[in-house]
Amino acid sequence: MVPCIDTHHHLWRYTAAEYGWIGEEMRWLQRDFLPGELRQEMENAGVQATICVQARQTLQETEALLRFAGKHPWIAGVVGWAAIASDDFPAQLDLLLRQPKLKGLRHVLQNEPDPAFSLRPDFQRGLRAMKGTGLVYDVLIYAPQLPVAAELADSHPEQAFVLDHLAKPKIATGEISPWREQLHELARRPNVWCKVSGMVTEADWQRWTADDLRPYLDAALEAFGPHRLLAGSDWPVCTLASSYSRWWQILRAWAASLSAGEQEAILARNAAEVYRLEGEYESCLSFPLYQNPGRSR
Question: How far is Cα 268 from Cα 5, in angstroms, rounded to an integer?
Fold first, then answer.
């Protein structure tokens, strides 16, 4: 089996106050989701390593995720949160960079009232401060914000960006345009990668099929090619519509028509490159991780 790195999952100790975005329609998620449970899911699904991603916008959560990563070698990295648009972001960044498992940062742009929040001067200043750190910026947006994401990538051509969840196309209604065309336009920027993740919760939670997902997976492959796609689960959010194992079965079945090298790239190697996974993770994968000499450490 081709080795896998899950590039997108969450962990949390649930409280209603801290995770207010988990509403009643998602009440299944209103409990703790911790490393032990995920590890069992990974073993069942044949996933060897992960990237843990922030789910609330506090430094305390980022620090908690880094502690989880320090205790569990299979958590290969963390995409955390910091106040990128704040005046004290450089000081926050200096402290966070002392943590070797910090691989990126993310802001919940999809929830900002201003759809062009990322183009504001204060946010742009923060992204400039990330230059040379090697950190990835994960882009969490809805499909209509794709043109803004293209402007963002153009503004910082040396910054690596990873688009989360294909920008959440409307899979449940079968709407594919203008999302597909705008995704292709974003993919013209060589500093942008894309996660095939978070798809089942954009489909009909109860009745989705692999055929519902295929046009969107195919569009992402056409846009980014096999060497700029990353595989992720969005666990535990994905469990609203799919088990962890079922998602990986769907993704592997879709990729099965590709060459062995292309499957390896999507399922693990691209993640190892873009998130700068170090040599200690070679032991949990069947290929040596390689480094991109153009990326800063």
Answer: 5
Return the pLDDT at 281.
55
Share of the chain above pLDDT 90, in %: 93
What does the DSSP assignment read for 129-172? HTTTS--EEEE---GGGHHHHHHHHHH-TTS-EEEGGGG---GG
Q: What is the pLDDT of residue 294?
A: 34
Q: What are phi and psi of 100, to 5 degrees?
A: -65, -20
pLDDT at 295: 38
For the segment 101-105, the average pLDDT, to the nearest whole number, is 98
CA proximity to 130, closest of 185, 184, 93, 157: 93
- Classify 102 as helix, strand or coil: strand
Q: Does the pTM exceed 0.85?
A: yes
Given a contact cutoff of 8 angstroms between Cβ atoms, the answer to whether 230 and 194 are in contact is yes
CA 221 – CA 64 distance, rounded (Å): 34
Domains in the chain with CATH codes: 5-284 (3.20.20.140)
Of 68, 141, 55, residue with least CA distance to 99? 68
Tell me if 45 sits within 8 A of 116, measured CB to CB: no
CA dist., res. 192 & res. 274, Å (int): 10
Q: CB burial class (10 A; 0-12, 13-18, 19+) of residue 272?
A: buried
- DSSP at 115: T
Task: Round to whole Å and give the CA distance between 175 and 169.
Answer: 7
Give the integer Cα–Cα distance in Å for 210 and 129. Answer: 41
In the predicted structure, residue 297 carries a pLDDT above the cut 60: no
